[in-house]
Amino acid sequence: MTILSGLMIGMFLAALDQTIVSTAIRTIADDLHGLSQQAWTTTAYLITSTIATPLYGKLSDMHGRKPYFLAAISIFVTGSIACTFATSMIELAAFRAFQGLGAGGLMSLALAIIGDIVPPRERARYQGYILAVFATSSVLGPLVGGFLAGQSTILGIAGWRWVFLVNVPIGMVALVVVAKVLNVPHTRRNHRIDWWGAVTIALGVVPLLLVAEQGQTWGWLSGRSLACYVIGVAGVVAWILVERRMGDAALIPMRLFGNKVFSQTSVLSVLVGMGMFGGMLMIPQYLQIVKGASPTKSGLLMLPLMLGMMSASIATGQLTARTGRYKIFPVIGTALLVVAMLLFHFEVQWNTPLMETMVFMLLFGIGLGLTMQTLTLSVQNAVPAKDMGVATASSTFFRQLGATAGTAIFLSVLFSTVGDKINDAFTAAAKTPQFQQALNNPAVAGKAGNQPVVQMIQHPSSSGGGASVLSDSSFIQKLDDVFAAPFKQGFADSMHLVFLLGAGVMVLAFVLVLFIKEVPLRSVSGIQAQAQAAAAAMEKAAAKEADAS
């Protein structure tokens, strides 16, 4: 429990950052005049954390977890400080990319250390505590992020910049606690470091994620997109060849994919990551842009999702520890995620009552809680104890890979379609008597807050039409209801398409999880298993020596 306290603080940093930014990103993007560029800040962070994750896992298997966990915290805090100095969305994306280099080690190394010291059957209970911390920070993140983003200045610094500064004191505490209490026994294993594996996996992943994010803007068959396809595929092929040649020293040893549970769970992690971030990104956008909630209020309104995830993750851990069974949880969880996304697609309109939306959020959160921790447990239980770090990091890597692709694709779909959806909504609304009456009423049309709509109607070619909302959406809340409705309807219609895509991804995840074999949980920890394997090897060597003599 002493070690666990240090791990929980480190994980709190990673989990808090993911959620604290989600409710503040709209305010940040509006202030930096780049709402449609917000995908870069999330994608850059996820790309670097995704690529760094397997490297942390492999290096920690070789040299021990503690130095790399401390390094991850230090890099993360330094990146957080850098983010506060951003003056544009591109600068912020660059600083978030550096921050992601640290984030890549926080979650995966914490879970690997738990795997080292706790047997799989009991591990679910302890991982339940860790994921409860993740869920708790997910509750606090939107609240704190919303509150900070809602302040114009705090101590002379713009409120949203404190979203990143708040990581600094927490990170300092984490450094002190981890340095003092994290003393896990480790047997050093000398291997070559697979730097070429890291280079080629970056060469394969980054271009494919870039085209996923920019494909709608560039054109899916444009020269830049085709170049990304070619470079990405070549990078993936080169990575596979490098990993085969490196053998056990590889970043992700290819022999692990010979384990059916590992390979199937890796694909499932990609799908769950895509679906998870699709929902987690869209819901705050809906609450703030469509429902007009402040960042702080949208954080409060996200509570059902977070509470559902927290309670489900704790219950899953307790039930797994008691029964030793775990496959049923991701089966139910992925099914609930499909249902929740379909409900958001069909039932949630721009004028849907908030209470109904919050019920759907609760369902979404329960589905995540039932699914997330079980995937990591399944991978850790299926591989040899000596591969605990690389297997845990691989599970996190594939989930992050899916999350990065999902973020890029879903936000690209949203912002490439929202302009047309808003224009369609305006065309329909302009024919109604209420809209014409408001437009011809000088008292309404003359209001300063309504001028963006009046200018858009009078000069459609120069105003950019519905696309003008992509740089700054804050003016929507200043409009009279009759003028604001088409904007809100356009955003809601674009989000429907994203939720439908997310539901399709989760259907694939549900089908795949049905075919994953449930391996009985081991009753010894990773360290105990390695000690037993070493003792058996020594006995075998001694017996062979005795026979020879």
Automatic annotation (TrEMBL):
Membrane topology of the entry: Multi-pass membrane protein
Record's subcellular location: Cell membrane
Main location: membrane
Chain ranges of the Major facilitator superfamily (MFS) profile domain: 3-521
Keyword Endoplasmic reticulum: no
InterPro entries in alphabetical order: EmrB-like, MFS, MFS_dom, MFS_trans_sf
A Pfam family of this chain: MFS_1
Alphabetically ordered keywords of this record: Cell membrane, Membrane, Transmembrane, Transmembrane helix, Transport
Keyword field contains Calcium: no
Protein name: MDR family MFS transporter
Species of origin: Streptacidiphilus jeojiensis
